[in-house]
Amino acid sequence: MAVSSDRDRDTSSRRHLSGRSHALDGLLRTAAAVRAGSARAVVVRGPAGIGRTALLAALAERLTSTGMTVRHRTARSGAREHQVLRDLFAPFDPFDAGLPDATAAYAVHRALHRRATGLLANGPLALLLDDAQACDETSLNGLGFVLRRATSLPLLVVLAQRTDHPGPGADALSALLAHNGCTALDLGPLDPAAIATVVTRALGRPPSEPFLQHCAELSGGNPGLLTRLLTDVRAADIRPDADGLHRLRAIGEELLTRSATARLSGQAGHIRAVARAVAVLGHTDPEPLGALSAVTGRRLTAALETLRRDGIVAPADGSAAMREAVRRAVLAELPAPERETLRARAARLLNDAGRPAGEVAAQLVHLKEPAEPWMPGVLREAAAQAPDRATARAAMRSLRRALAAGPTGGLRQEIRVELARTSAHLAPATTLAQLRQALAEATRPHDRARIVVQYGLIAAGTRRAPQAVRELGAVLDTLPTEPGVPGQALRAPVAAALLVTAVNDRTALPAARERARDWPVPPGESRAERHLLAGLSVLAALDGGPAGPAVDLARRALWIKEPAPVGPCVLGASLVLSLADEVDEAMDALGRCVSDSRARRETWTHIAALCGQSLTLHGTGDVTAAVSTARTAVEHATRAGCPDATMPALALATALLSWGEAEEADALLDGVAGPDVAQGVWEWHHFLYTKGRARRERGDLDGALELWLHCGRSMEAAGIGNPVLAPWWLPAVTTLVRQGRTRAAADLAERSQEAARRWGTPRAVGLGLIAAGVVADGRARLDLLVEAVDALAASPARLDRAKAEYQLGCELLRHDATPDARRHLRRTVELATGCGYHMLAARARDLLVAAGGRMSRLAASPVDSLTESERRVAELARRGVTNKEIAATLFISLRTVEAHLTNVYRKLDVRGRADLPSSLGTPYRPGRHAPDGPRHSPAGTRVASN
What we know:
The protein is mainly alpha-helical. The protein is built from 45 helices and 5 strands.
């Protein structure tokens, strides 16, 4: 390898030194220690453009000015062995005839040491080597030998290593770092201040903060890339202000892309071929890259090194081989026929190498026609494994061509079914049409059952659900009911699909409920039977109680022998468990569903499970976690291009309202209203209830009440009697009272309390008692609120309990029971703060201070942010109980224990169970008896409820 001297070096690289003053100072301090008689070595590491070369140039200049002898070189690929040693220690040749045994490494090292000692006789010596990763191993080993023998001599060795290109010297550099006198100096991206300095110098004026941030995003803080960007910005006469930001956003990627492609056009043909192959493949795996580009071995390695240095190919440790804009530009320069030929060759190479179907399909989707017989099969396989939109569309084109070829009989039916499955997430209407045609053509009971089940599951949640329920019912009527008769086993999957399709459709639900009324409860031994159990549990929950039978059905649905339950079975059963206050079991099931659906790449199921988690977390009062989980669901839905993102939007809006973000919540809700939403059972009623909450928070009580009453009428028409599915009645009662419509409020409160008692869970009973208390007077009102607090204390609904504590505190103030009122208001602040419901906490805090409460006692302990389940798990963990023993004691899964402990550690800001505080005991409970006080409500406005 050749080396370059100081004269060969591009001194313009010194422009990138901004932000490296600390690194330079550190190197100068090391040089000072060297002058005192202690040999040192430093390996400066970083990717291309990060400023290694400029840093070494600045160091050489500073050391030379202090009188130190500096030998500064750059290693080059393709040179002969020992070339770096020849140039750093010139005049020196390890193969001079005078050397004994010139081929022996030890002899070379001894000769090298003698030469170094001779140079050091003249004073301190600095050896600076750039691109050391390209240096041959023998030269680096020689430098290591000299360092080990010169520990008390004034020798400084600084080696700059590109981390995005291993090179032949990578292993030797790692060995060198193990030497006591050698340290690593890693150069990271420039910080904002350094970027601002570079931008100011380049453009002649300080940039605005948004302009600076966008420069940082485009360059990633890489000095070399930033300098190239600013060169183009200056050439385009873009000013670093607000107007310039708009132009930078519009052309920033284009500028970088144009700069990269311009540099590529001046490269040798084989380097351009490698760049095109990287753009096609999307990675730099040497084997397929070499085969596609026809460049292999050292030429391929050197070509990639050049492309990385020029910013065309990303660093080796990056997540993508090329910036997407650069990749598109490289491919756009190819004529369309040549580009298609390259894609086809890449697909063939990858397929022959046995690469995954998805990787092969990523090439096939760009072809106008999959010309070879094996290509359609790969597309269909890829669509089944990971149905991204491009692969699914290509597979759909292939299947439509196969259908147009006129297949007959069973083959035509299979193609229709496969086309339906492939197009399910892209074109539901096409899917349902194909399945209906396949169903009409099918004659065997097994085929009809299989097709109609798929038809029903895809129609669920769409306006085709009632028609699908009719089709499912028609097929179900043809199947025998007697056990042991051929075809009887098909009843369970068809019946389960019928319920899954119907339970979330207001028009289909009544007929499904009537059909299922006399169905026997299956034992749950098969997956289909467990899906049926889940559907029956949802029906029982929608009917409104009592909760026990619905919970029993849900638990039986989740009793599994498979590694993990999937799909509607888990979603339906976990909804029932959550409504019944069995949140630990619900979160356990949803957690497994999230993990399993992620592994299976079942996007819709994954999003639905995240929404279920968010709503359950909100119900327990963990508003912050609910917001975070719902945002994750929204992001997944957006990234996946889901046509219907109603569930994530509703989950996020629900949590945001409790977080005090009514405007964002209202905007989300405005984006989900539509005919399909209005047809749903859960989505529609939850939308009406949540939209009413948003209207109330924005001051529109009349509009809120109208939405809540509409929700009630709709639920009654659909035969939904569960009081906590969408508890519209509680804010409706409160609003009716505020409007002076006390008779209507009392009638609604009475009906709602009866429904709450019938469902029978602590949360439902507590909310019913609040509603009864809102319309009561005097001592009866106070007693009802005390009962409500007691009931909610036995539930996981900390947020509802905080609201009840607030109601009770307000009522106690009306009865002049100030000390007791302060106690409940203080508890409200603690609960609401722990839940993240800051609006209620602020309201209670103001009332507490007005009642004479002390602010110093208002700080909620982090322990109060724990849910009841987290508190129980944390207490056992603090006592030294193992996770497995905790799971057995509390009858929950090991994964649930781990999830609870993770939340506990995060909320308490501790590292593990050894750091758990001792104050994890039983949380505060209000007394069961109301404190003494006046028995008549004072004059004034009633306190608003939930």
